[in-house]
Structures are given as C-alpha cells and as structure tokens.
User: What shape does this take?
Amino acid sequence: MSGTGAKSGAGAASGTGAADGTGAASGTSAASTTGVENGTTRAVRFYEFGGPDVLRIEDVEIGEPGPAELRVRVDAIGLNRAEVLFRSGQYIEPVREFPGRLGVEAAGTVEAVGPGVTGFAVGDEVSVVPGFSMNDYAVYAERAIVPVAHVFRRPEGLGPVEGAAVWMAYLTAYGALVDAGGLRAGDTAVLTAASSSVGVAAIQVARHLGATPIATTRTAAKRDALLKAGAAAVVVTDEEDVTERVRELTGGRGTEVVFDPVAGPGVVPLAETLAPGGSLIVYGGLSGEPTPFPPMSTMRGRSMRSYVLPETTGDPERLRRAAAFIASGLRSGAFVPVVDRVFDLEEIAEAHRYMEAGGQVGKIVVTVGR
Assistant: This one.
C-alpha cells in the first residue's frame, strides 16, 4: 500500500483523469517539485489486524511520483468505513503485506508533478478521489503519492476539510441512485442508515434530481438531524414498520429506489416497499448477517442488485459524468458536504474509535498539522 510513497511512489495508475479539471497521464521524477525534507513523511501504518490501537504514525520514505502520479501535500483526510474494515482484516480486498497503510480520500496541494503529466501544476489545490487500492496508494499521511487519474481540482471556495468530505459520499450516491437506480424527478428513494456521509449525500442528490428522499434510522436520536439535512421524512425502524410507513408516505405507490448499506435480513421488508419496476440497491453489509433474496412473489417486476464504487470510478466515462454532476451541484450550492467532526492526524486512533461508535451524522475528517 504505497500511497505515501514507499517503494519511491511506485504503483502507477494509468488513464487520463476525469472531468472538471482532472489530470491526464504522469511520470516518475518530478518535473517541478518542492523538496521533501530528508526524503521522508509522517504516515499512518499498521503491522497487524486489530482495533484502532494498532495504528502507528511513523516516518517513511516518500520519493518522487512515478508514471501517472502526483505527489500531494495532504491538508485533510476523509475517513471511510472501508479503512476500518481494511485495518481489522474484514475488507473485501485483503491486505497484501504489512505494514499496511490506509486512506483513499484527501484534499491538499500538488507538490510534485511527474514527467508527462498534463493538466496539473505545483500549487494546484486538489482532492484525491477514491477508486484505487490501499495496497497501492494511501493518503493517511502528511504527503502522499497518488494516481493522477483519481485527482480532481477543488472547486473554488471549497476548503480542504470540505474537499476531503465530498467525493466518496457523492460518487457513491450518484453512481447508485443515478447510474444504477435510474432515479428521476418525481420518484421516491428510501435511504437506509441515512446519517452516514453517503446517506446525507444521497439525500442531497435525490433532492437535486427532484426526487423525494425518505431516510431511515434505527433510533429517534438522529431524526431531527436527518430532517435538517433535507430528508422529506424519517422512518425510525426501532419504532415503526418500514414497509407500512413507506407505503403510507407514498400514498400506497411504494418507492422507486431503495439504497441500503446494511443488507442482511432487513432487505426483505425493504423489498416490500418497492413500487412496480423499483430497484433495491445494496452497497454494503453493515449487518454482518447473510442476505437473503426476497421471495419471488415480492420481487415480481422489481429488481435487487449490489453496487460497488469501482463501477463508477473504474470507468473513465462514468467518472467524467459523475464528476461533472457533482461539481455542478457544489457550484450551485445544491450539494453542501456535511462534516460531523474534525480530528488531527495525531488523533487518528480516536477518529477510528469515533467512526466505529456510529454516532456521527455526515463525514469524519482528519486534518494534517505541520
């Protein structure tokens, strides 16, 4: 996992960047650079699977960007549940070797540009966008070498904290709701575990499309926060029958899209909320339980599928369209990244504990002081 530059920043990603000022190919040894003192940077690593306490901050070699790479001075890091799973050995992709590294989303400033790179210059303010393996690159660090195909210019007026809180959430919401779910104006979307950063982004994406977002949450503690975030209604699943409540809220029609990171047995009542032609899209497995396929009598004329982010980030044309959609929403003010809490890099273990506790509404961000 070389994103902070072990192996001299090796691990090139090919491709030409996405829309809205993203870059093209790149190369080894910087065309222009600001020096890195002693050739090292402080980075988070772990030598065994476990809880947050396995995380260490160490000095590691950084080197120069390789082909299709940039070196970025990191100002803020967006935390994602994938990193918790990777650290604990439960992620869908195994750790290739120890020490492992973490992080796929960050904001910062271009510090070095590899030969052949076009579209970026030293000093550009950028966001690093998820879509690469943490075995190859990682951004929990003061400086990171990253694939240029997954670097976007930050829209004007978006600071580093907000710039680190945008892309995982909005790319996932867009890819699932728009590309996979075909959500349109006049539709209804049921968004489960809606207090996550992806859930809050999905609320905003649905509203931007002219659809009606219905949020679900286990307890009433987050009801007001979800309504404030833009949900048209909130279903508290510990107190209400989700199928009956959604049917009531939609006048008996049902919902066109269900967007669910929980999976497990709960997909059955969620499937029962679908309108004819509706889609149940599962993008996570927070329940940790086996996920059944709902009865055929329920699914007749309806569909159930999984969604993973590489469907969007691994396809340059889809990524270009997604980036244009999100940048437009940011410029218009329709999309406003919701940041729940900010930690310092030195508090990375505490930030992971906070994420695991599950009390946040929106994104957890870690800033990098120097």
